Amino acid sequence: MNLLDKIVAAVAPVAGVKRAQARLALEHARAYEAAKTGRRTAGWTTPSSSANTEIGPALERVRNRARDLVRNNEYAARAISVLTTSIVGTGIQVGMGKSQDLWNRWVDECDADGQLDLNGIQALVARCWKESGETLVRLRYRKPDDGLSVPLQLQVLEPDYLITVNELTANGNVIIAGVEYDLLGRRVAYHMWRTHPGETGYNGSQARVRIPATDILHVYQKDRPQQVRGMPALAVSMMRTRDLSDYEDAELVRKKIEACFSVFVRTDDPVRTIGAPGDTPDARRIEKLAPGMINYVKGSEEITFANPQANGAYGEYTRTQLHAIAVGAGVTYQQLTGDLSQANFSSMRGGRIEFNALIDQAQWLTFIPMFMKPVIRAFGEAALLVGKKDVKGITPKFTTPKRPFIDPVKEVLALKEQLASGMISPSEVIRSMGYDPQEVWEEIKRDTETMQKLGISPDKTAGLSLKEVMLQPNAAE
């Protein structure tokens, strides 16, 4: 109460009470509605814990459930596939300048398992990241005489290898969820199992190893400051996905029950039955229905047919839930379901614009800085150790996967207008289509030289088919 309130309360207590009540009501009205307590917010538990406190106890269970959904639920499997394909496609290409040939040779040799190239490793890393919440990649340095163009290989590991332990070390470092930090807050090591804890054939009693942080690439989406571990992309929509699956199962059972044609006979005679006589030993009649059958019943008997009621809201409810699942997984409804019945060019393009912005973030803010750039740095360091000095001073150029046009005519015309107005460069246009500009320029140069040797004018062949081009004068036989 201020001075005026105290004076009013002393002179007129009733008026003072009204002033205090009005002030409390005004303060209550000005407060955030989400901060109020009452019937609407009863049971809403909101602890102020850190990201690691929230993620740590739930990570393993959520991760295992996400994998189970991907194995057994079509929508979950589709969401992970869409995210993986959109982030890496057939591989994020890297322009390495004068070291391009060395890089291209190493791309085919980099898998420690000897099965994939770097493009396949990218897809594996992205899929594990989205499905399990994070991916570990161990840098495996090899001997110079192992026959590799660069003595380095990559080993992709699931996050199960990382031990979920929180403790202090003897030198004062702290371990949070298996990641060791020094006194300056820098990652210095990862504490991991030597083998996968869920691998068949191991009894669980295995060694714990400490691997320097310089040898491990940890790929995950960092949503909060000081967050150490990542959560699966399906974590938000996981319960809704499972509930929808249960609802579909229940609806299927109901449909099966509806398909059963049931007849109920009410009679006062426990011996009499409806239907034709049977050949049973006790001469009891066998109840059955036949086309055109006419049967007489007594006045005390009544026949009632089951009349199941159809559920008309099934489709609309399922569609609504799938929209929510798609939003939670970070994909569009059309991508999740393949349902284009309610889509047109504007809606498809509008949804793709927002989706592409999310994919750009995943590529340029997580995947490239956490995986691609560290791999390139390790490649350069390993190349220098064996005398490959061409890698010094190279700035890599990344080309992300091309995005297919929804309406090629309209979108190509838009690109041409932007190019003509100087808003974008030809190289940027080529990169947006998923190609390396340097390779495109070199290919155009080779094709132009070949056409000149054959006496084919590029202007004359514009708009012609391949057959018409080959029929030009001086064309190769």
TrEMBL record:
Example GO molecular function: structural molecule activity
Superkingdom of origin: Bacteria
GO biological process entries: virion assembly
A matching Pfam family: Phage_portal_2
InterPro entries (UniProt xref): Phage_lambda_portal
Protein name: Phage portal protein, lambda family
